[in-house]
Design brief:
By secondary structure, the protein is an alpha/beta fold. It has 6 helices and 7 strands, in the order E-H-E-H-E-H-E-H-E-H-E-H-E. The chain has a single domain, classed as Rossmann fold (3-Layer(aba) Sandwich), CATH 3.40.50.720. The protein binds NADP nicotinamide-adenine-dinucleotide phosphate (NAP).
Amino acid sequence: MRHALIIGASRGLGLGLVREHLARGWRVTATVRTRSTELERLHEGSAGLLVIEALDITNPGGVATLRQRLDGQWFDLLFLNAGMMAGRNVPLREVPDSDIAGIFLTNAISPVRVADALLDRVPSGGMVAFMSSILGSIGTNDDGRAELYRASKAALNSLVRSFRARHVQADLTVLALHPGVVRTSMGGPGAPLDIETSVRSVADVLEARWGTGGQAFVDYRNDIIPW
Ligand SMILES: NC(=O)c1ccc[n+]([C@@H]2O[C@H](COP(=O)([O-])OP(=O)(O)OC[C@H]3O[C@@H](n4cnc5c(N)ncnc54)[C@H](OP(=O)(O)O)[C@@H]3O)[C@@H](O)[C@H]2O)c1
């Protein structure tokens, strides 16, 4: 039975990815920063297949503690989903520096630090997936919307490529994923995709790319996105 470790699963797409992988017959370990009654309900009905752990991805001490707690366990899939929005519809000059630091730490630096800390729990042939966004594509940035969020996901993409390069010897598939524009608290009520459709499609992409090695920036339809 395959085992997934999904980071940032209290709600939205992370919670959806947990539900989808359980439905596909995986064991899942899911981390949350904030207690989630929905995830706890899933745990109760999971016959032990879902384990919940605590993690704020920006807390290095918490990352070290989690790594210790996971000693001896293997995860075929490590999925870094946690992310945030800041500064949407606000001119860059008016965004507080603390928000700028927070979004880069949360969306770019911390996911890669967590992946580095947990990579020795991913066996040969496994997969590390980072939740990016099409807005992180520099090559397709023609309108500048959500520029701070865009920059944080572009930084994530750059760090994902560095992560893959640093682990070039590893038998590993590394993905940066765009889940579509989805009706979550981040995507908003007018977004075109519901969570179920997005996470089902993302899980299909993971299957399609399983064991292919290398790295790719792809959307939920498995279409390549320019970096
Ligand atoms: N929705 C979209 O249209 C869309 C499009 C492209 C990419 N994405 C990306 O998809 C991912 C999930 O987004 P979503 O739409 O599901 O957003 P969401 O509903 O706002 O959920 C964000 C998740 O990230 C967690 N999180 C944020 N900061 C964290 C931290 N420091 N430590 C641990 N967990 C943290 C949140 O936990 P708490 O409950 O503790 O806050 C929550 O579980 C994000 O990376 C986002 O950038 C979303």
